[in-house]
Amino acid sequence: MILPEVKNTTVTLSYLIDQSVLGNRKMQEQLYLKFATPMFYVCLRYVKHAQDAEDILQEGFIKVFKNLSNFKNEGSFEGWVRTTMIRTALSYLRDHKKHTKHQEPDDTIKDRKSNVFDRLQEKDILHHITRLPEGCKNIFILHAIEGYNHREIAGILGCSEGTCKSQFYRSRGRLQQMLAQSL
Fold first, then answer.
1. In this structure, are residues 38 and 2 in contact, taking their beta carbons and an 8 Å threshold?
2. CATH number of 13-98
3. Quick one: how far is CA 121 from the chain centroid?
């Protein structure tokens, strides 16, 4: 269940954060409402089902409120929350890895004269991204969608920068194959 964003312009983000750290439930609720919808869509990029994204969102906000006093007002608060959601999603995927199975795509690419993206909508592309194998999918999302560089991704995932680069290029190739096959 996604709630609408708070439209109250008289309360600043800094005030919401300060009051939330002090345990003010109304301010915590407003902070949640302000970021729930965009963070839900961040979570949804990592899983196939909205229910799983909601679980990640809830778990992520528990972590946000638990660690809110650690936010140092350096950089964007939304970026800090986004990073928490991404890490929560990756943790969720690691914990649920044994329950997911992936079907590997063919190694052949069909030649297309027109650009694949001309005929697909964003939701179709995101659907195919969620079908990538876990490691490839996570690196692809972190780099292509979230905008992290390979060094940052390596730090988040605990792997080498070279592994991130090779997984990204492998995922990009697999995504191209899936998109070409769907046309």
1. no
2. 1.10.1740.10
3. 19
